[in-house]
Amino acid sequence: MKTLNEHLAQYAAYHRDARNIATHFVGIPMIFLSIIVLLSRPAFVGLTAVPITPALVLSCMVAIYYLWLDVRYGLVMAGVFVVCLLVANELAAQSTTLWLSMGIGLFVVGWIIQFIGHYYEGKKPAFVDDLMGLLIGPLFILVEFGFALRLRKEVQLAIEAQVGKVHIRKKTG
Is the dihedral of CA 26, 122, 107, 43 positive or negative? Predict the structure, then answer.
């Protein structure tokens, strides 16, 4: 299995334009939340006080994977999952129309924003070549946020050694 740095470097290779990364700070959280919202029905209430939903099961599986890649990032992402699950459970408790319109609306608008970013980048999204890009995208945003706060410099340097620094792509032709 790939390491954290290998996954991030592969994903970062498709995301070196600062404008693309900026759009991802908006688009990925929207898509991330939309998937959790849409998977928050049906809810199976059983022996636990927390309803068991497909969103909860998927979130736990992905959080475990993130923890396996890196404990610190995994813990932060687990916290993000908890917040998203709380929001999603509230939306799932509303009318079907509201739940679906929020879930689908966030998903569609999030992807539009993503594709605008890739226009600036001049490259296709990472998931086109490797579906793991869909899983690494949310982690990439957390990592980039950390880099902006000057955290985990060793990870940033490892990625930049493989794919170069973030820049603004100049139009050619």
Answer: negative
DSSP 53: -
d(CA 128, CA 149): 30
**What would the pLDDT profile of 54-110 be if each residue is shown by its tens digit?**
999 999 999 999 999 999 999 999 999 999 999 999 999 999 999 999 999 999 999
Which sequence spans correspond to the domains of the chain? 4-163
Contact present, 43 and 52 (Cβ < 8 Å):
yes
The C-alpha atoms of residue 167 and residue 11 are separated, in whole angstroms, by: 16
Token pair 């909860």 in the structure block, residue? 56
77: β partners = none
Separation between Cα atoms, residue 76 and residue 72, nearest integer Å? 7
